[in-house]
């Protein structure tokens, strides 16, 4: 494929992805005042935001406890499996070839 054909193909693909628009617009830079206004919280929202954050922390703690419990169970099961595999390997070593 030639470079012209590949360039045309790229432009066509871009037009399809962007809905036929070839205009590339850059994001508008926000001023510090606009950013502050966008993220400013009133005094009432601060207490509700703190309560929301506390609730989220409690939920996260519960999830982490579940994950910890699950990982402990998996560790226990894997140790049981390893001991069974070792026991089976020892039994098979002790058997004679004609007993297999």
Automatic annotation (TrEMBL):
<feature type="domain" description="V-SNARE coiled-coil homology">
    <location>
        <begin position="35"/>
        <end position="99"/>
    </location>
</feature>
<keyword id="KW-0175">Coiled coil</keyword>
<feature type="region of interest" description="Disordered">
    <location>
        <begin position="1"/>
        <end position="31"/>
    </location>
</feature>
<feature type="coiled-coil region">
    <location>
        <begin position="57"/>
        <end position="91"/>
    </location>
</feature>
<dbReference type="InterPro" id="IPR042855">
    <property type="entry name" value="V_SNARE_CC"/>
</dbReference>
<dbReference type="GO" id="GO:0005737">
    <property type="term" value="C:cytoplasm"/>
</dbReference>
<protein>
    <recommendedName>
        <fullName>V-SNARE coiled-coil homology domain-containing protein</fullName>
    </recommendedName>
</protein>
């Amino acid at each position: 494929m030639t470079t012209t054909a590949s360039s045309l193909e790229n432009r066509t693909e871009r037009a399809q992805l962007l809905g036929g628009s070839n205009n590339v617009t850059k994001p508008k830079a926000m001023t510090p005042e606009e950013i502050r206004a966008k993220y400013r919280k009133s005094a009432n929202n601060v207490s509700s935001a703190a309560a929301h954050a506390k609730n989220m922390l409690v939920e996260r703690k519960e999830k982490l406890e579940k994950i910890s419990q699950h990982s402990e169970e998996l560790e226990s099961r894997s140790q049981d499996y390893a001991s069974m595999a070792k026991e089976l390997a020892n039994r098979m070593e002790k058997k004679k070839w004609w007993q297999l």
